[in-house]
Every structure is written in structure tokens, then in C-alpha cells.
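**User:**
If convenient, please work through this fold.
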Amino acid sequence: MRFVLAIAAFVLAAAMIVLGIAQRTIFLEPASVSLSATVAEDARFAVVEPSALNARPGSQTITISGSDTVFMAYGRTDDVKAWLGDEPYADIRLAKNAATLSSKIVEPEAVPESDPDATDPAAEAEPETITNPAGSDLWLAEFTAANTLTTTVKVPDGISMIVASDGTAPAPTDVSLSWPTDNSTPLAGPLIVGGGVVGMVGLILYLLALLHLRRSRGPRRNLPRGPRMPRLPRVPRPKAIKANQITGSRKPLTRSMVAVPVILVSGLVLSGCSADFWPRSMSPEAAVSATPTPTGTPAPAQDVPPPAVTVPQLERIVTEIATLTADADANLNADTIATRFTGPALEKRLANYKIRAADPAIAGLPTLPSSSLRLTLPQQSSTWPRVVMTVIQDEADPTAAPTALVLRQESPRADYLVEYMIQLEAAATVPKVAPATIGAPVIAPDSTFLLLSPDQVAAAYADVLSLGEASPSYALFEAEGDSFRTQVADLQTSRKEKLPSTASIEFTAAAGTGRTVALATNDSGSIVAVSLTESETVKPVDPGATVGTEGASKALSGISATAKGITSTYGDQLLFHVPAAGSNEKIVLLGFSQGLISSTELP
């Protein structure tokens, strides 16, 4: 009976081990599942829709080939379609009622019209000739490779991929998507280890059976006596064999029988140590969904436009602008700086380049730090133009004043341009604003829901600079902490004291030509960026007298002395917090930037 049980245990152990190994070999499912599509050879662009990217749960591994240069980027689906505009493209999506990808050439829908509240209705974007999608500010991430591109991402719903070569040549023809699958075998480990344990039990039963058999063959006692047999002749005794004459092994059989199964079971146990061999505490779907999602644009609330950019996206844009600005400032390259600056910020820098070209001893403008963003406030918008405000603190010099940037993107294929670059006041407290994942709406320039309409702020503050307490707008602005107002007053006093008696000086201030940008704050107020111009006109008062110029004014005008007079114009970029209408608070100056932009002789 013991032998029967031992044999049954060995058979059961062998069956369990074979079944466990089979689950990891012949019955093992593939580690990933893939779908592929072919792009028409005449298509210059292809778009992988969210339905294709999220056809299976988990991260997406995309492989693209079929052209010398392969470009792929992903961004918000609306942004991808807006960049394409009226370009035909191959639409790659999950086929209906089938686990395959479909690819067909489609004509895009009409591009959304510009937001009338975001810009001057008279301002129109120039026609664009950009065809290469590489480097666009719209993309959350982009990749480029030669011949074949393979990368793994995990993008949420609402994100699409754009595939191209260089925007002129045909797009890559082969697009493949794959997703990891859960091919774990949670019973393999228990079967293999359990088989080993059952084998050990069978071995023990077998040894016990052998021991019982040996004992049952021993001498028997109290047997009945038979008839006495005659004594046989004595047989010669054989010679004793010495130990050194023994050539065969005399090791006990039981040790070998024990060693072999122990080694076999140990190997099988170790082979089942992988996590894929054992049951898990979560379902395969939960395990796949637990993969971290890369930074993207979160799903906005219903009927609320999404933010124009994400924080990582803006960090990449600002870093590129900072690198370009440093190069342009060092080489006084007006063409280069014009690719990333516009409006008052560009006007100030171009004037500084002319001044430094004429007089290298004059200092350049403050650089743009390529540091992390302290505050990001994108506009809530699905249309164009779009604006974004951000605050940067130079990590290399914590004592330096933070820099506020206001950037504008005129159209989908245009880059974000710096429209205002302003140093914040030392004691400035930026009001609480919405998080970057939500963004803020743009306030209409003529809004009456603020203490002062955004389009009236520049003129009102210019009047305060000109008239001081006599200005009707004086009570609207907070004087305490406004160092710019003090700086302007001190400078005007100094100029008057240094002026000779043969000359006169006149100061004026007016609203500038820069566009007013206003983004809502959490207190129903607004952060408003405006521009001002301050003019300083010096004239001789005696016949035959002349007035001289010096410093930046001399370098920019090219005139050292004139009998007609000279006008120097300074461009001011100002950032205000305008409280809501009916508030007891005043308009607070958050920061400013000033620079000479013009110096001309009077006619």
C-alpha cells in the first residue's frame, strides 16, 4: 500500500510540475498586443486619433517607419487639428466593430475663428508659410528619428499624435501601436512548488515502504521444527578481501535517492520566484491602469475652455526663448530677437541693440532667466490668439527681482512671442490666481466689472505721472510701494536741476501702443499689462544756443548737439492688479520696465 501511495504521489507531482511549466511555455500568451495601419503614400501628414491610442489600456509604444526622416509629436486633439488647418491628412483611428486600425484621407473641418476678446479686432495675423510641424509650441512632446522611430508614452484621452516627415515630403507610411498585456500565470508558481512538495511526500512514502519491506524479511522466531537433515561436508572458507581491493562504490543507496529529488525540487522552486508566477492582489486591469500618466492637459470642466498651455510645455517654451534671447543680446541680432519678441518688449530691445552698436560701453538689458516658473497663468482658450502670463525667479540670484512675462500666440502655427517683460516690485504681492491646470479667462478691454476698465488703466496712470495729486485718477492708484512713480519724479527733478538756463525741458506721458492684456484673478479682479510712453523734450531758449545729448540718447539719435531741440521717448511696460468694481482696494502697480526707445531731433 505504501508503494502505491508513493507512486501516486510521484505521478501527481509530475503532472503538477509539467502543467506549471506548460503555463510559462506553450500556453504563455504574448506580452503585448499590437495594431498597425498604412498611410497613403501621397499624404504629408497623419493623425493618430485618441480612439487608436487608447484602444487598449496601458502605455502606448508607437513605431513609425517608411520615410528618411520620421517626426512625431503629441498634443491636445484640438491643437493638432488647428495646426493642420486646411491640410488634408491621413486619419488613423480604431475601426468600428473591429479590433483593427483604419486609415483614410480626410479633409479637415473649418478652423475656429479668433476670440474677439483676446485681441484687437483690427489686428489680423499674416499668412503663414510654415509647413514643418517640428518645433511648434503647441506640442506637449515631440520626437525625431531617421528611418524608424520607436517610443513609449502614456497619453490620456483627448490627446492625438501628428506624424510627418518634414511637412513637405510624404509622411511615413507604416504606423504601429502596441500595448503591454498581462500575461502572468498566477497558478504556475503554486503548481511547480506544490508539485515539488508532493514529490517530496512521495519520496518519503517510498523510503518508508523500503524500510518496512526490509524489516519484514528478517529472521522469523518460534517456527515449528522439521526433521533433522544430515550434516553436509564443510566448504573451504574464501580468502578475506582487503579494503584497498574494492573498486566499486559502496555509498548507501538512500543518500543518492534523497539528493536527486532535493536538487530537482530546489531548482523548480527557484524557477517559480518571478512575480508573474504567483497570484496578485489586484486585477490585471488595475495593474495596467496603475501606470503613471505623463504630463498632459487634464480634462477641463464642462463648457470651460482648456488652458492654453501646460506648465511643462511653457517651461520648454521659456527655456527656448531664454537661450535665443541670450544669443541675440550678445550678437545684437535684431532678426533673431524678432522671432520671439513682439510689441513693447521687442521695441525696447531693438532700441537697446542700436544704442549698444553705437556705444558698446552702455549696458545691455536684463537677461531672461531660464529657471523654473514660480507662477503660470494661461488663458482659458480653444481659439487664437492666446496669451499666457508667467513669473520667473532667477535661481542663480535669489535677490534679483522676479521677472513677469506676458506671451502671445497669434495663430496655431505661430510661436509664442514675449509681448511684455516686466520686473516685479520688491514688495509686490501677486494676487491669487487659478491653478495652471485650469487657467483664467481674458477680461474684455472695456469691461465695466473692474474698478477701472483695462483699456483706461494706461491713460489714467499716465495722467497721474504727469499731474501727480492734481490728477482726477490719483485716488484710484495705490501710492505706497509704487517705486516707479517715485523714480520718475526724482528723474524729472534731476534733469531740471542739471538743465542750463539757456534751455527748457518738458515732460509728457501717454498711453502706449502696446495691446492691453487682462487676465482674471480669484478675487474677481484682473492682472493687467499695459504700455506707456514718456517723452522728454529739451529746447534751447536763447537764439544761437544749442542743447547737447549724452549717453543712450546720443547713441540712439547720433546727435551730440542741436539748435532745434531733441525729444527722447521712453517706453514703459507696466503690470497692475485692478480690483473688482465696488471694491475698497486701489489699483496696485506690481512691476515695471523702462527703456529708451526713441531719440530724435525736433523739426
User: Anything to note?
Assistant: Residues 492 and 507 are 8 Å apart (CA to CA). The chain has three domains: 1-30+185-214+253-297, 32-111+129-180, 313-601. Residues 116-127, 246-265, 268-272, 282-300 have pLDDT under 50 and may be disordered.
